[in-house]
Amino acid sequence: MKSIKALFLKKQEKNPLWGDYICLIEAVRDRKFTRKWLGIAMNELITESVDYESSEKKQYLNYLYSASNPLEEGKNKGLNAL
Asked: What is the pTM of this model?
């Protein structure tokens, strides 16, 4: 499996106008990374000069995790049931 960094750099190269966070989201989408590895990647690869509060950082990490590990079709049906 390619590393998150390699995937991230490939997305950045193909899409130079995208921000770092968007490139990271697209790099990990549907690749089933753990929260631990996503957190490490986020700390290492996001170079924008934004100081995130811990609550904001947690939300960004949660979104990365959900992009990397989408719900399976069977699980989605249970969530949408009336």
From this structure: 0.79
